Amino acid sequence: MAAEQIRGWEFQDGAKDWRVLSTSGVGAWFATASHRDGATLVRRIVDARAGDHAAGSMQPNVDLRGSGVQIWIPIPDTGRLTVADLALAQDISAAARELALTPDPSVPQNLEWGIDTEDKATLSPFWQTLLGYEDTEYDDLLDPLRRDPRVWFYPAAPRPLRDRIHFDVAVAAEIAEQRVADARPHGARGDWSPHDGRVLLTDAEGNEVDYIPAGGLGDGSGVTDWRLLFGGMVFYPTRDFEQSATFASNVAQVADEVGLPLMIDIRPAGIMIDTGKDQWEDERFGETARRVQTAAREEGLTADPRRLRFLQVCIDAVDVPSVREFWRVVLGYQNDPREFVTDIYDPRRLNHPMIFQQMDPNDIARREQRNRIHLDLYLPDDQVAGRKLAALAAGGRYTRDDGGTIADPEGNEVDIGKAIADRPV
User: Fold this and answer.
1) Can you give the pLDDT at residue 422?
2) pLDDT attached to residue 24
């Protein structure tokens, strides 16, 4: 018998630590003092799913960090949460309390990409191919691992000039060339020749992506599983959630003992281990990579580089400091302390970095054209109003009277919203 369905607001009433968001599902964050503390909670989640009252709930997606654990209970294909999902959330919260972990329901958020187009039928296969995403019955593309942003397409009249937003995408070198070849029939343009430093591709309407093939760590002994996609990354398929939890505990121990923070993301297909952008340059990475690979071998795991992907949003701006500050506030990020970069990043390393590049102030026509690409930010329902006010205080302005889309000081747009229906009056 199918589990009884419930609405989002009913779920939040029954599980106060949790918030309904967009395609990620229902999310919660529990702060920890170490990777191992988070791994202990993951083990308790495995036990909770074995209970009768959580039977039928979907396997959560877990993002394990040194400072906490983010847990997403996916929304079933029916589009409705169930009492089994609620029971699992309640069990997880109870386990977190027993472990003295602190919830913070303001943390979960989703950033998504929207592309305005007059020809979705052409653009969608281009982006699906390069990103390795899944097509859906709706107007969007989804990362099979649900780590990277959803891509939406909106009908719109053509805008011929270069956009001020583009994407950097890195994938394993083993698959990059074939993906580019597969994207050619779908309008991919550009003299893509990575060996000569040319990595720019555009879709049929001129939206740009720097598509970067990522190699390994050379011939270093004991690190052949790893690839350098702006950060050190490796993905290991696992047979089930229990094996993932066991391996995550081993990786957490390595991270704590070596002292290098890691992003340990558990999915139904396996486990992704990621240093985060540029963190592989830390002198502790070599030992970390070797010990993680050794632990994987002992568990009988084999790396799959085809699952690896790095993404970041890049915004061209004339006044980089003001535009950067706007997006830092909107996303709840921090400035990268390095003076030679313009990055902003999520301090918990849960969401993707963003960079800013200098634009020619005399390119007036391009500056005045509305972007084809814009961003959608989904927040917990009780965080939306405050974040909008913060965006306006950081130089943003509403582009319409309905209080929806907000533009930064140079016109780059974001929609800040929620994904939960209002409760009945």
Assistant:
1) 66
2) 77
CA dihedral of residues 339, 340, 343, 348 (deg, nearest 10): -50
CA separation for the pair 357, 342 (Å, rounded): 8
Question: pLDDT for 387-422, tens place per residue?
Answer: 999 999 999 999 987 778 999 999 999 999 987 766
Q: Which residues of the chain have pLDDT under 50?
A: 1
From the CB of residue 219, how many other CB atoms can be counted at a distance below 10 Å?
A: 7
Q: Model pTM?
A: 0.95
The dihedral region occupied by 222, where left means phi > 0, alpha psi between -120 and 50, and beta the remainder, is left
DSSP character at residue 328: H
pLDDT for 425: 59
The two three-digit tokens of residue 326, written as one number: 């706007």
For the chain, report the end-to-end CA distance as a whole number of angstroms. Answer: 31
| 263-267/61-65 β-pairing | antiparallel
Structure letter (DSSP) for residue 97: H
Q: How many CB atoms lie within 10 A of CB 252?
A: 24
Largest CA distance in the chain: 65
pLDDT value of residue 177: 96
| pLDDT for residue 1 | 45
User: Which string of DSSP letters, residue by residue, matches 165-177?
Assistant: EEEEEEEEHHHHH
Quickly list H helices, 272-393: 285-298, 320-331, 364-368, 384-393
Categorise residue 187: left if φ over 0, alpha if ψ from -120 to 50, beta otherwise: left
- The answer to whether 274 and 352 are in contact (CB under 8 A) is no
Distance separating alpha carbons of residues 200 and 193, to the nearest angstrom: 9
Q: CA-CA distance, 277 to 310, in Å (whole number)?
A: 9
Using CA atoms, how far apart are residues 354 and 331, in angstroms rounded to an integer?
10
**Half-sphere CA count of 144, side-chain side, radius 13 A:** 15
Q: Cα-atom radius of gyration of the chain, to the nearest Å?
A: 21
**Residue from 232, 247, 219, 235 nearest 285 by CA:** 232
